[in-house]
Amino acid sequence: MTSTRATLIQVAERAGVSLASTSRALHGTGASKAMVERVRAAAAELGYSADAIGRSLRLKKTSQIAFAVADIGNPVYVEIMRGIHEVLAPHGYRVVVMSTGDTATSTAELIHSLHGGFVDGMIVIPLRTDDELIEQIGQAPVPVVVIGRAMSDRGISSVSTDSAAGIGAAVRHVVSLGRRRIGFLNGPLDTTPGSSRQRGFDEAVSAKDFSAEGTDVEVAADFTVAAGIEAARKLLDRPHRPDAIVAANDLLAIGAVRAARERGLSVPRDVAVTGMDDTELGQVFLPRLTSVSLGSAERGRAAARLMLGLTEDADAPAQQISVGTELFVRESTVDQNGEDAE
Amino acid sequence: MTSTRATLIQVAERAGVSLASTSRALHGTGASKAMVERVRAAAAELGYSADAIGRSLRLKKTSQIAFAVADIGNPVYVEIMRGIHEVLAPHGYRVVVMSTGDTATSTAELIHSLHGGFVDGMIVIPLRTDDELIEQIGQAPVPVVVIGRAMSDRGISSVSTDSAAGIGAAVRHVVSLGRRRIGFLNGPLDTTPGSSRQRGFDEAVSAKDFSAEGTDVEVAADFTVAAGIEAARKLLDRPHRPDAIVAANDLLAIGAVRAARERGLSVPRDVAVTGMDDTELGQVFLPRLTSVSLGSAERGRAAARLMLGLTEDADAPAQQISVGTELFVRESTVDQNGEDAE
DNA sequence: GTGAAAGCGCTAACAA
DNA sequence: TTGTTAGCGCTTTCAC
User: Fold this and answer.
1) Which of A261, B93, B107, B203 has its CA 20 to 30 A from that of A98?
2) Within 10 A of B34 (CB to CB), how many other CB atoms are there?
3) Between A127 and B95, whose confidence is greater?
4) Topology (CATH level 3) of domain B64-161+295-322
5) Could you say which architecture CATH assigns to the domain A163-294?
């Protein structure tokens, strides 16, 4: 950790040519073969690497994109980040992680911090999307892509997924399995995911081909296993116990499985359980969770691609990408071979 | 996304004072109260925010720290990153995520990229630590903190954890439960975690107070559930089947539970299983996994603190922090109330 | 206490 | 093709 970095001026002196020629020979165009050769050699001898800051100042481009999220650590967000990184890294962009979690920073503050000019754009997953946020994004000095609700009608590029449709798929799946009473285990209704999933359930059970006998709804305090256990107990203790529980995410679904086991109920025999997000957690759970994938990595990739477009033309019209959902059927709804399903 | 950012010069003009005074009034010292007032007002009117790049160039400080890891997405790494972020963010540092995963970039290349000068330091978790890597780190133009093996004797600040001792704790735990035959389910031996955990197991079973009847060892192809199932099957199919399996991480432990269920064995009654890393995955698994915490978040925090020290004095002597391990006893070894333990 | 000016490392417009 | 020079936005000597 002792070596000092060489500057372009030093390379120029070493090569015995001008600063401009040196710059051109290394990055730009219009340098003779001999010049390139000469400068390259000098640069190599000095172990030269272009200074990112000097370059940024001149080019007005940081080659950095921020990824802002409430709680880095949430498996779904991590998966999204992976997708973002996968697309941006090959284009020379670095990903700066910003989190509202550990400091008392709000999403609005994160967006405001963009005025510092340390990134060329921001991909954000807001917990709630209200008018104030939309306003904030409109004021942002760099392109912002939102993952969550569709917002292109408000002039903001966004990536969404039809979680409502995903809930519908889960409901139809358990009904097709012959389940008669469907419980819906949702998270807080005042969140974006909570409200859209509720809508999905309501639509699914009011469809004319919905053939089950009845439904029950329980709202957990948040999207965690603990809250899921709590709420699932209530669901299972209803006079007419559900024989299927559609949960709004995998953590709630795991809570539902636990609550069922507490009561000596077998999953999926007595009660089928579905999750949402298709996390690794759910995939290795016992029983493996039937879950609706919202294409997390793909949402990240899509957002990153939108961002790449915006970095080229910040005033391009707002785009809107919807990533499809997919139901993965596993042991928590279908006893696949009887030996390890419960 | 249309607003343009004001520069310090504009603020100076607006306030009708010099550039120097403006800068001093906003950040520095030695400005009169009236001046501060005046400049603040002008800055507020223009919505001024200092440009991070111009500032960096002048101060030779980016306020960014890189976090480099093979595979962002690994839950353990995510937890570490959370710890890092938690410590660095309040100090005004941003965290830049670098991953060797999706591009063909090696750890060595990531370290080399530090010559670009876009961060003030790097926290890295190398997959393998050989002499070449140590050499590379010695050449790095900014402070580097390694999470993994202890390396302060090589002049590199590092954070480690005694996973060998952790395996020992797990072994003693199952023995204290009265288990007679202990199986060790390890991951690849040519990795840093694999080799130290093997050492831990060997030491534990050769201790003179080790009172079990026998041991078996199986090495999985990698640290995943699938590989764990595979290797655990072999362990369970031995002539003298183990009544306890100590796994080298939570994913392998989950594989062991699965393999046991396949054979109609009950966990923990027929076979007790322990994991390592104490991931959320293990905590919500069914049965909840007894696991040895290696203090992931704390390792991240410790590394971040070391880094903060190094940013103040890059030539300070290399420090070495060891984060303690802790055994969390849960349902996979102790049937806690009979109702939901398996 | 305040202002003028230099310069961090780089690229690009302009001149030769 | 090559060199000279200005300037990106900022902080900090240095004079006053």
Assistant:
1) B107
2) 9
3) B95
4) Rossmann fold (3.40.50)
5) 3-Layer(aba) Sandwich (3.40)
Q: Do B1 and A138 make contact, defined as CB atoms within 8 angstroms?
A: yes
CA of A256 to C1' of D16 (A): 77
Distance CA B273, CA B243 (A): 9
Q: Which residues of chain A neighbour B51 with C-beta distances below 8 Å?
A: 116-117
Question: Could you list the protein residues whose CB lies below 7 A from any atom in strand C?
Answer: A 7-9, 19-20, 22-24, 26-28, 50-51, 53-55, 57-59; B 17-21, 24, 30-32, 34-35, 57-58, 60
In which residue are the tokens 């962002």 written?
B72
Query: Which positions on chain D have an atom < 7 Å from some protein CB?
Result: 1-13
Chain A contact present for B52, CB below 8 A:
yes
Q: How far is CA B301 from CA A152, A170, B210, B308, in A?
A: 39, 41, 35, 10
Count of C-beta atoms within a 10 Å radius of residue A331: 20
**Residue B106 corresponds to which amino acid?**
S
CATH 3.40.50.2300 in chain A, residue ranges:
64-161+295-322, 163-294
Q: What is the pLDDT of residues B29-73, one digit of tens each?
A: 889 999 999 999 999 999 999 999 999 999 999 999 999 998 888
Contacts of A249 in chain B (CB under 8 A): none
What pLDDT, on the 0 to 100 scale, is given for residue A4? 79
Which residues have a Cβ under 8 Å from the Cβ of A72 and sit 6 or more positions away?
A78, A81, A97, A99, A101, B78, B81, B82, B85
Q: Verify whether the Cβ–Cβ distance A47 to B115 is below 8 Å.
A: yes
